[in-house]
Write the structure tokens for this entry.
Amino acid sequence: MLRSCFSNIARIQRGTLPISVRHYAAPPKRFYKNTGVVSSNGRYEITLDSRKLKTPRGLPFYVESEPLAIAIATEWDAQKEVIDRSSMHLTALSSTVIDNPNSLQKHDMVNYLVNYINTDTVLFHSSEEPELKKLQNQEWTPIVEWCNKRYEINLASTDSLVVPTFEPGMVMNLSRYFSSYNTAALHGFVFAVDTIKSIILTMACVDRYIPIEKAVQLARLEEEFQQGHWGKVEWAHDIQRLDSQARLSAAVLYIYFNTSNAFVREKISL
């Protein structure tokens, strides 16, 4: 076995063994000059010159919020020579809502969010690093206490790997809260939670209790602590932090954009 491995290495060095090279598709070049927004029957569509934007499945792309449509048009306008779809989070979220590739219903996302809180990042403190545990208690506990008071629940931190169980009443309170949002906004919640691994920090951002930068910092608390001891690759860790901030910002904006109209209608009806 070892002889075979050494033989293959030698053949590669001599250039006699073919080396497979992975080729990635080049990003599409920007094919339009101007972006715009057109409205019809309460829906807003994005135009790229004279063409209307479509989803990955080829369906008409539209949103029901004018500010969201303007933000999406800005994403497309910000593209330079090539189109980097990985940086266009509002476009991706809106396309996901329309195409619904995973066939998610509203109750599926509500259950996902409610069940996620059992494994929320800020509830699990270190059991091996006293300094880290002290920092986690200092930074995370006030957020948990705020969440308990704000949503009438009773979350508690732990330093074990056992996933805690919660009272049925607390689950009902959380379900009622998330069910008050429409399907599009729930997609924003799921995207945010998947980004920072914390529904508590996401709720704190949506309620404007903490800013985006603080939420990302708290979500990365253990990683930042370890970097303080072992050092970091600045460009790599900085890119990860900024990417998380961009994703969380897009998610929170998406929630706001998809709930503001409902709030306006509710106030008018009063």
